[in-house]
Amino acid sequence: MKAVAIDGPAGAGKSTIAKQAAERLGYIYVDTGALYRAIGLYVSQRGADPAGEEEVAPLLKDIRLELVLTEEGQRVLLNGEDVSRRIRTPEAALNASRVAALPAVRAFLLELQRGIAERSPVIMDGRDIGTVVLPEAEVKIFLTAAPEERARRRLLEHQQRGEQADYQTLLEEIKARDHADSTRAIAPLRQAEDAVLLDTTHLTPEEAIQAVLNLVKRGG
C-alpha cells in the first residue's frame, strides 16, 4: 500500500493533477480542499463567522461529509446533498481558508482523512498532507506555480464554466489565500523537508501528471 501526499498553494493544479494520476495508478483520490470548502459553505449557510472557533465548533457535530465516485467524477456530499459546484466559487475558497485555520475543524477532518488512507492506496492533496495529515507518506510532493500562472488557470476554469471573472481580482485573491495559508498558526502551508518540489509554471497538465507518476513509481 502506498500513500502519496501532494501539497501546495491554491490554484497550482493539485486537484486536476492528483485526480488524473490517481486514476491512472488505480489509487483513491482525496481532495481535502473540497472538504474544507464544504465546511466553509455549511458554516456560511448557518450565518456563522468562518473564522470564529466559538461559532464554528458547535456546528461540526451536524456535518456529514462524503466523497463519492460517479461517472461524472468525484462528487462532494454535504449531509447527503451534492455541493460539488457550489464549493468552487471564490467566496467558498476564502471561507475554506478561514475554517482551515481553526483547530476544531482540522481535528474534525484529520480522522476522516487518515481513515481513508489506512483503507486504500491514496493520492491526497491539500496544504498540510505531508507535514501533518500523512507525515509517513511514502511519496511527498510540493506542487506549485507562479501566482500569475495560477490566476490565469483559474480565469480559464471560470470561462470554461461560462462564468464571469476578472484576472486581476483572481490574482489578488490567490495572493491573499497564499498569505493566509502560509501564516496561520495551525498547520501552515509549507514544504515538508522530505518532499520533492514540482514547479508546474511552464508545464502542460499532461507533463505535470507524468512528473507525478514518475515520482510515485520511483518512490519519491
Q: Strand tally, please?
A: 8
Percent range for β-strand residues: 15-25%
Overall form: globular
Secondary-structure-derived class: alpha/beta
In helices, the fraction of residues equals 40-55%
Low-confidence stretches: none
Largest sheet: 5 strands, parallel
Q: What is the gyration radius calculated from CA atoms? A: 16 Å
Distance between the termini: 15 Å
Total number of helical segments?
A: 9
Trace the largest sheet across and list its strands: 2-6-1-7-8
**Mean residue pLDDT:** 92
* Pattern of helices and strands: EHEHHEEEHHEHEHHEH
Protein described:
- It contains 9 helices and 8 strands.
- The protein has helices at residues 14-25, 32-45, 53-56, 90-100, 103-119, 129-133, 147-160, 167-183, 205-217; strands at residues 3-7, 28-31, 65-70, 73-78, 81-82, 122-126, 139-144, 196-199.
- The longest helix has 17 residues, at 103-119.
What topology emerges from the helices and strands here?
Layout: E1 3-7, H1 14-25, E2 28-31, H2 32-45, H3 53-56, E3 65-70, E4 73-78, E5 81-82, H4 90-100, H5 103-119, E6 122-126, H6 129-133, E7 139-144, H7 147-160, H8 167-183, E8 196-199, H9 205-217
Parallel strand pairs: 1-6, 1-7, 2-6, 7-8
Antiparallel strand pairs: 3-4, 4-5
